[in-house]
Amino acid sequence: MRLRSRRPGLMTPMRWVVLVATLLLLAFLIFNLWYRSIHAEVWAEEREAAQRASEAAQLTEIDRIDKHVWNTTTWIVQGRDTAEQQLMVWLHDDKVEIIGAADGISEEELKRQLAADHPEQQVVRIMPGLLNGVKAWEVYYSVEGSPRRFFYSFYRFDNGQFITTYNLPNRFAEGSISDEDSLP
């Protein structure tokens, strides 16, 4: 009786490892291309804002770039010029306004003011912006309760004076959905 040697299978353990590694690499590359294509427009706008601000204010270093959208879209670029002076450049409606950071209230000063005046607030984000043509700090915060409430408050950039607050509606709070508001 003749014994036939068994042929090894097509997929050896090493081939499985290579196949899985190749598939993972391919998935990573596809995800990377997808992510880059989604963010390309935003990154291009950010680069353009940085370039415009650098040219207008002679910035040598950029610390932070914020895009603020309220009444109008505004880019605020924070950085240092050749004299190491901290500047904020406001880009909106084809206008460029350069303001020394020392000419306004700082984010840290505003945080201290809010903590002293409203200790119940939990600040989520503070960013510079433009509200009805006035340079302002936008403070997004929440207040504990049932339900938890969220607000946007605006404070003047130059002196920290309160401007206004917008209360975000909480449509899905307990008992707040009427028959007309019910979901399909």
Description:
The structure is a single chain. 30% of the residues lie in helices and 37% in strands. It has 184 residues and is of the alpha+beta class. The strands form 2 sheets. The chain has a 4-stranded antiparallel β-sheet with strand order 1-2-3-4, covered by helices on one side. Strands 5-6-7-8 form a 4-stranded antiparallel β-sheet, covered by helices on one side. β6 and β7 (149-156) form a beta hairpin. 15% of the residues are buried. Mean pLDDT is 88; it is low at 173-184.
What would you say about this model in short?
30% of the residues lie in helices and 37% in strands. By secondary structure, it is of the alpha+beta class.
C-alpha-based Rg, rounded: 27 Å
Spans of at least 5 consecutive residues with low confidence? 173-184
Arrangement of strands in the largest sheet: 1-2-3-4
Distance N to C terminus: 74 Å
Number of strands: 8
Helix content: 25-40%
Tally of alpha and pi helices: 2
Largest β-sheet summary:
4 strands, antiparallel
Based on the structure, what is the oligomeric state of the protein chains?
single chain
C-alpha geometry: elongated
Which percent range describes the beta-strand content? 35-45%
Order of helices and strands: HEEEEHEEEE
Topology record:
Blueprint: H1 13-57, E1 59-69, E2 73-81, E3 86-92, E4 95-100, H2 107-117, E5 121-131, E6 134-143, E7 149-156, E8 162-167
Antiparallel strand pairs: 1-2, 2-3, 3-4, 5-6, 6-7, 7-8
Question: What structural keywords apply?
Answer:
alpha+beta; 2 helices; 184 residues
